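Re: weekly structure request thread

Next one in the queue (277 aa):
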Amino acid sequence: MTTHTVDTTQELAAFLRARRDRLNPSDLGLPSRRQARRTPGLRREEVAELAGVSVDYIVRLEQGRGLRPSADVVEALARALRLAPVERTYLYDLAQQRPRNTDRPATTAAPPLVRLVTDLSPLPAMLLNHRYDILAWNREMSGLLLDFDTLPVPQRNAVWLCLMHPEIRDFYLDRERVVREGVAHLRAAWAAHPEDQALSDLISEFATGDEEFARLWAEQDIKVNGRGHKVMRHPVAGVISVDVEVLVPLQDPDQRLMIFRAADDRSRSALERLSAQ
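Done, posted below.
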């Protein structure tokens, strides 16, 4: 099985190359050159100029030659490459310039959070850790998705369910977006938790067992959603649209409280019928 333990040097190199290739020089106000560009995106010389570092330094970074850029250089590269906030955080993680949380990742939910998930009824709610392991859920979430108590613990993972579970694979109408966002979240978590072997093993399982995941993982998208929208095809209640809010407990920053709210009257009625069962 291919391992996905984080090699920060090689991942940093690949990430810088990928982000450089995605930039359009004209959007950055760079002067046009007479010589035609053989590859898309910025040249290394242009990134070096924008970041205020030498071209040789960029070359060595992109070749994965063991450099560890300082926080100032990381910030300069983030500005030069026009990184989104979550991508900037990812770059800091790869450069090991962000303080690490040395606590072991949670595999069970703290009792106060379990009670909170229950108290959020009738809104469907569940608690996940950074791996997307489902740690706690209320009755409404089970009614909407599936009975998590019937699943082995290793399968209580939101990404695993979307990729592997026969009932959930076709549950989301916009499946491509849902999977893409899940993969982008796992990539950010992977850089932030390089010591988490369980997460690395999970990614290896997905990458070797699911072509869709492997394709999306190779695109190196980074995203951490705080809110969103999902449209689901429930086998009993029909099409349900929900707005999703994701909250992070201050004392447990690697966990996510995910709350679903009906996005329209029809969906509200459908959720009420499910809750009454």
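The chain has twelve helices and five strands. The radius of gyration is 21 Å.
Next request, please.
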